[in-house]
Structures are given as C-alpha cells and as structure tokens.
Request: fold
Amino acid sequence: RRARVPEEVLDLAMIIYRTIFLIMDHLVMVYQAQMMRLGYRTFRESIRSFATLAGAVFIASWEAGEDLTRAMEARCYEGKFAVLGEGRPFSLPSVLAVISFLFMSAGVVAATTHVTLI
Reply:
C-alpha cells in the first residue's frame, strides 16, 4: 500500500497468491494418484492422463473460485481486505500484557517439563 499500488490490484494479488498454492496442491495430489495407477506408462496413456489432470485441475480451480465468492459474500465483503498493520498503533499496556503473558507461559512450560502424565 505504501508503493501506491491500487487497492484492487493488491486484493487481486492476494487472492491469486493464495489460489496458486491450492491449485498446486490439487495438481500434485492428482498427479501422484495417476502415477500410482501407472497413468504415464506409455505415451498414449501419458497424453490421456495429462488431459484428465488438466480437466480435474481446471474444475477444482473453478470450484475453489466459486467457494471463495460464496465465502466473501457470506462475510459481507465490501471491496477491501482487512490487512494486519493498518493503523493499529502499539500501546505500552498492551505490549506489557503480551510480554507478561509470554513470560508466564514460559514459566509454566519450564515448571511442567519434567512432569509425566502417565
């Protein structure tokens, strides 16, 4: 936002960045399943498996887009994503509260590391 990039471009980039990894996960999952079923044994089967893979990934990405649209509508999306670090200054009491919580948590962990439950 400091680089004077339009909000729409940033929002679109965030959605694309998230979606790339979802699509890649689905692609790897389908490819591994095809490999286990000997889908790439011959050239002809490779072409057929690749076409099936492309179709499955396209359909999955389309459905993921529809799911994202429904989720955004359900959350009353108004054209702007909430991003951390936007105008939330730190106050001394909140910083001290976080630090004290971390020290208390570390103390509890240190005190219970030698305790066995069973």
